[in-house]
Design a protein that fits this description.
The complex is a heterodimer of chains A (767) and B (50).
Chain A lengths: L2 H12 L4 H7 L3 H30 L9 H36 L7 H23 L24 H29 L12 H33 L12 H34 L7 H14 L15 H13 L1 H17 L6 H24 L1 H7 L3 H31 L7 H25 L16 H30 L38 H4 L3 H6 L13 E6 L6 E7 L5 H17 L5 H18 L28 H30 L13 H17 L4 H25 L7 H20 L1
Antiparallel strand pairs in A: 1-2
Chain B lengths: L1 H10 L2 H5 L1 H30 L1
Classes of the chains: A mainly alpha (767), B mainly alpha (50).
Chain lengths: 767, 50
C-alpha cells in the first residue's frame, strides 16, 4: 500500500462526521482540542471585558460608572471566568490537542470521555455567562466565603449559579485529568520509556494528578454550601455547630494547588519551546522533572498561607510560612535550568522567545513578592490589599498567559499548517508587556498605601488617584494588545501561505506529521529511542508515512492504537477506539438538566435526569469491546498483540484507579471536615447524637465480609454473595440515617447525613 | 455494577469473560466496602468515646 492510499484509508476510519453534525459527534482529540482552545479564548475575552469594566470603575475616585451591586458581580465573574473557564480549560485544550501527537499515539485514552468533558464545560460555562447577562451573576467574590455567600449574606440565586455551575464545569476538569493521566502512562509510542517522554508530558501528568486531588475539596465545599443554602444544613454556621472557616480550608485546599495547576502546564510549554528557540536541548531534564513533582507535592502543604489572618495558632503559622518559602526552591531549579539552557544555546529572538523573556521578567517579580507574603508579619500588613492583587496577577499572567502566548505562536503553524506571515504579533507583544507592567507594577504601591482589594470605589486624597488612573490607562493598552493578538491569529490562520512541516526545527514527535494534522495523527506509529526522535532521524516522518512503523496496515478498518508498559514503553496491547457518536453530548446535556434542576429548585427533574445519565452511562459501557476473541494480532513490527478487551488491565482499569483517586480525595476531604468541626466547633457533637446499636455494626461487618469475599471467589459468587453484601451495607446505612436527628438542627447531624449519603451513593450502585 | 457485569458475561462480551472488567468491578466494590466501614467508624466514634 502506498502512502496516499494509506492516508485515504486511515482518514476514512478516523475522520469526524462531515458538516455541522461533526461538531456534535466528534470524539477526535484534534477536533476537541481545537474546540476546547476556541471556547477558552472566548471566555478569556469575556473575562477581559469584565477586567476593563473594573479598571474603568476604579480609574477615578467616587466613580459611579458601575454601582456596587454590578461591581460585585463583575469582580466575582472576572475571577471566576479567568480561573475556571479560561486557565484550566486552556490547559485541557492544549493537552488534549498536543499530548497524543507528542507521545506518538493516535488519540487519548478515552475519546468519548474527552467529548463528554468538553460539552460539560460548554454547558456549565453557558450557565455562568447566562447569569451574567441576566444580572443575577455570583457576587460574593470568586472565593465565595460564607457568610457573604450564605443565605444570610446573599439570599438571591446568585451564589447558586457559582456553586452549581462550577461543580458542573469541574466534571470537565476531572474527566480531562483522568484522560491525560492514563494517556501519558499507557498511550505512548513503543520504546518511549518514562525517561524518554517529552518534558511537556511530565508536566501534564503532574498537573492532571493535581487536578484529581485538588479539585475534590472544592467540589465538596460547593456541595456543602449548596446544601446549607437549599436545605438549611448548617455546615458553616457557628450558632449551629458549624464554622465558616471550614469553607476557607476546603476552598484553599483546592485554591493553592490551583495556582500550580495553572503554572505547571505553562512551565511545560516553556521547557518545550525554550530549547528549540535556543537551538539546543533542555538542560537538567531529570532535575526539572523532580522539581515539577516536588512543586506538585509541596503545593498541597501551603493552603493555610491564604488564611494567615484568621487566627491560626503560632505553630501553624511557622509551619506554613516555612513551607511557603520552601516552594521557591523547586521553582528556582526550573528557572536556573532554563537560564542554563539559554546560555548553552544560541537563542533566536522569534516571537515565542519574546514572550518567554517577558515570562522571565514578570514571573520572577511575582515569585519574589510571593516570598514576601509568605512571611507572616508582612502578610498581616499586605493582606486584602492591592499588593496581593498585583502579586497574583504577576504570577498568573506572567506565569501562565505569557507562556501560553509563546505556545500559541510556537504551535500555530501546527494548528493551521500555515506560515506566520503578518507581523502584528510583535506590536501586540510590546503593547501587552508595557500595558501589563503599567497596570500591575503600580498597584503594588497602591496596596502598600493601604488600598484594600475588592472595593468598588474610594475617596480622593489618599494618594491612590494617580496610581489608579495610570493603571486603568495601562490596562486598556494591554487590552488593545490582546485584541491585536487575536486579529493576528485570525489573519495568519486565514491567509493561505503554506508552511513547512517543522518550521522551528524541533525534535519532538508532533512535528513528525503533515500540518494541519490528519485525524489519525501518524500513518504508522514510531518506535522511539530518544527524547528528540526528529533530531536522531530527520527521515522519520517519511518512514512513518510509508507505513514502516507500528499499525501501518489499516486493513482491520477500525480505530487502533498501541498501549504500552508504564515504565519501559514496551508494547502491551492494541486498543480499539470507538467511532463518532453524539452520546457524550447527549449525556452532558442530561447532566446539565440535573444541575439545572438543582439550581432552579425543580427537584422532580433531578432524579429523572440522574436516571437519564445512568442509562447513558450503561449504554456507553455496554458498547465497549466485542464478543469475539481475536487472539494475538500482527501490528507491523515486533510480536503480535492482544486487544485490550482480552487483557486483565484494560484502559478502564487505569481510568478507574485515577477516578477513584479523585473520589477518595473527595471522601478524605469530607472526613477532614468532620474532624475539623469536631476539634474546632463548640458543642460538638450535640447532646442527642445518634448511637447505632451493635446489630447495625455487626450487619455492616457481615455485609463488608460478604462483598469482599464474593468478588474474589468464582465469577458466579459475585451475584450470590457480593450483591447481597452490598445491599446489607446499604440497609445499615439507611437504618443509621433514621437514627440521626434533624440535619438542619446541628452541623454534626448534617455532616452525618452527608457521610452516610455518600456511602449510600456507592453501595446500591455497585450491586 | 455486579448485575451489569453478569449481564455482559451472559451476552458473551470478551472483556467480561477474560477478567479485566471483573477486576474493575472488584476495585469499586472494595472501595464501597472501605467507605462503609469508615463511615460506620465516624458515626459510632462519639458514642464509643463517651
Amino acid at each position: 500500500m502506498n502512502a496516499l492510499r494509506r492516508h485515504r484509508a486511515l482518514s476514512r476510519i478516523w475522520a469526524s462526521d462531515p458538516g455541522l453534525r461533526g461538531w456534535f459527534t466528534t470524539v477526535n482529540h484534534t477536533d476537541l482540542g481545537r474546540m476546547f482552545l476556541a471556547v477558552a479564548v472566548f471566555f478569556f475575552v469575556v473575562g477581559g471585558i469584565l477586567a476593563m469594566l473594573i479598571r474603568a470603575q476604579l480609574a477615578s475616585p467616587r466613580s459611579a460608572f458601575l454601582g456596587p451591586d454590578h461591581y460585585n458581580q463583575v469582580l466575582t465573574m472576572h475571577g471566576t471566568i479567568m480561573m475556571f473557564l479560561f486557565a484550566i480549560p486552556l490547559f485541557e485544550g492544549l493537552a488534549v490537542y498536543l499530548l497524543p501527537k507528542m507521545l506518538g499515539t493516535r488519540d487519548l485514552a478515552f475519546p468519548r470521555l474527552t467529548a463528554y468533558g468538553f460539552w460539560c464545560y460548554v454547558f456549565g460555562g453557558a450557565m455562568m455567562v447566562f447569569s451574567l447577562l441576566a444580572g443575577v451573576a455570583p457576587d460574593s467574590g470568586w472565593f465565595m466565603y460564607p457568610p457573604l455567600s450564605s443565605t444570610i449574606g446573599a439570599p438571591g440565586i446568585n451564589p447558586d449559579f457559582w456553586l452549581i455551575g462550577i461543580t458542573f464545569v469541574e466534571i470537565s476538569a476531572i474527566s480531562a485529568a483522568v484522560e491525560i493521566t492514563v494517556t501519558v502512562l499507557r498511550y505512548r509510542a513503543p520504546g518511549m520509556s518514562l525517561s524518554k517522554m517529552p518534558i511537556f508530558a511530565w508536566y501534564a501528568l503532574v498537573t492532571a494528578v493535581m487536578i484529581l486531588t485538588g479539585f475534590p475539596p472544592l467540589i465538596l465545599g460547593s456541595i456543602l454550601l449548596e446544601l446549607e443554602r437549599a436545605f438549611g444544613m448548617p455546615f458553616f454556621q457557628v450558632a449551629a455547630g458549624g464554622d465558616a472557616l471550614l469553607w476557607q480550608h476546603l476552598f484553599w485546599l483546592f485554591g493553592h494547588p490551583e495556582v500550580y495547576i495553572i503554572f505547571l502546564p505553562a512551565a511545560g510549554a516553556i521547557s518545550t519551546i525554550l530549547p528549540v528557540m535556543a537551538r539546543t536541548t533542555l538542560m537538567g531534564y531529570g532535575w526539572i522533572v523532580a522539581a515539577a513533582v516536588s512543586l506538585g507535592v509541596l503545593s498541597f502543604g501551603l493552603w493555610v498561607h491564604h488564611m494567615f489572618t484568621t487566627g491560626i495558632p503560632h505553630m501553624g503559622l511557622a509551619f506554613f510560612s516555612a513551607a511557603s518559602t520552601l516552594v521557591a526552591v523547586p521553582t528556582a531549579v526550573q528557572i536556573f535550568a532554563w537560564i542554563g539552557t539559554l546560555s548553552k544555546g544560541r537563542p533566536s529572538l522569534h516571537l515565542p522567545m519574546l514572550w518567554l523573556l517577558a515570562f522571565f521578567a514578570t514571573f520572577v517579580i511575582g515569585g519574589l513578592t510571593g516570598v514576601m507574603v509568605a512571611i507572616v508579619p508582612f502578610d498581616w500588613q499586605a493582606h486584602d490589599t492591592y499588593f496581593i492583587v498585583a502579586h497574583l496577577h504577576y504570577v498568573l499572567i506572567g506565569g501562565f498567559v505569557f507562556p501560553m502566548l509563546a505556545a500559541l505562536y510556537y504551535w500555530m503553524p501546527h494548528f493551521t499548517g500555515r506560515k506566520t506571515y503578518f507581523k502584528l504579533g510583535n506590536t501586540a507583544f510590546w503593547l501587552v508587556f508595557f500595558g501589563f507592567h503599567g497596570t500591575f507594577l503600580l498597584l503594588h504601591w497602591a496596596g502598600l498605601l493601604g488600598m484594600r482589594r475588592r472595593i468598588d470605589t474610594y475617596e480622593a486624597g489618599q494618594g491612590w488617584e494617580a496610581i489608579n488612573l495610570i493603571a486603568s490607562i495601562s490596562g486598556f493598552v494591554m487590552a488593545i494588545g490582546f485584541a491585536l493578538v487575536l486579529i493576528d491569529v485570525v489573519i495568519n490562520a486565514v491567509v493561505a501561505i503554506r508552511g513547512s512541516r517543522d518550521p522551528w526545527k524541533a525534535g519532538t514527535l508532533e512535528w513528525a506529521m503533515p500540518t494541519p494534522s490528519a485525524p489519525y495523527n501518524f500513518a504508522s506509529l514510531p518506535h522511539v529511542t530518544s527524547r528528540d526522535p526528529l533530531y536522531d532521524d530527520p527521515e522519520l516522518p517519511v518512514r512513518l508515512a510509508r507505513g514502516e512503523g507500528y499499525l501501518g496496515d489499516p486493513g482491520r478498518a477500525r480505530r487502533e492504537t498501541i498501549s504500552v508498559e508504564i515504565a519501559s514503553g514496551a508494547p502491551r496491547y492494541i486498543t480499539v477506539f470507538p467511532g463518532n457518536t453524539a452520546l457524550p453530548m447527549l449525556m452532558s446535556a442530561i447532566t446539565g438538566l440535573f444541575f439545572l434542576g438543582m439550581l432552579l429548585k425543580t427537584y422532580w427533574l433531578v432524579p429523572i435526569s440522574a436516571s437519564g445519565v445512568i442509562a447513558c452511562a450503561l449504554y456507553w459501557v455496554w458498547s465497549l469491546g466485542g464478543t469475539t476473541r481475536e487472539g494475538p494480532l500482527p501490528v507491523g513490527r515486533g510480536p503480535d498483540l492482544l486487544t485490550a478487551a482480552e487483557t486483565a488491565d484494560p484502559p478502564g482499569w487505569w481510568g478507574s484507579i485515577f477516578l477513584l483517586l479523585a473520589n477518595g480525595t473527595f471522601f478524605g476531604s469530607l472526613l477532614f471536615g468532620y474532624v475539623f468541626l469536631w476539634t474546632i466547633a463548640p458543642n460538638w457533637p450535640p447532646p442527642n447524637f445518634a448511637e447505632p446499636g451493635l446489630g447495625i455494626g455487626l450487619t455492616a461487618l457481615a455485609g463488608a465480609a460478604l462483598t469482599a469475599l464474593g468478588t474474589r471467589w468464582r465469577p458466579g459468587a459475585a451475584l450470590l454473595f457480593a450483591a447481597p453484601g452490598l445491599v446489607a451495607l446499604a440497609v445499615t446505612g439507611v437504618m443509621t440515617l433514621m437514627l440521626v436527628p434533624d440535619p438542619t438542627a446541628h452541623a454534626y447531624d448534617a455532616t452525618l447525613w452527608v457521610l452516610i449519603g455518600y456511602g449510600l451513593l456507592h453501595q446500591p450502585w455497585h450491586s | 455494577m455486579l448485575l451489569f457485569l453478569g449481564a455482559r458475561r451472559q451476552a458473551g462480551h470478551v472483556g467480561a469473560h477474560v477478567g479485566g472488567e471483573a477486576r474493575i468491578v472488584r476495585l469499586w466494590c472494595d472501595y464501597a466496602v472501605l467507605v462503609s466501614l469508615v463511615v460506620a467508624l465516624a458515626v459510632g466514634l462519639p458514642g464509643w468515646l463517651a
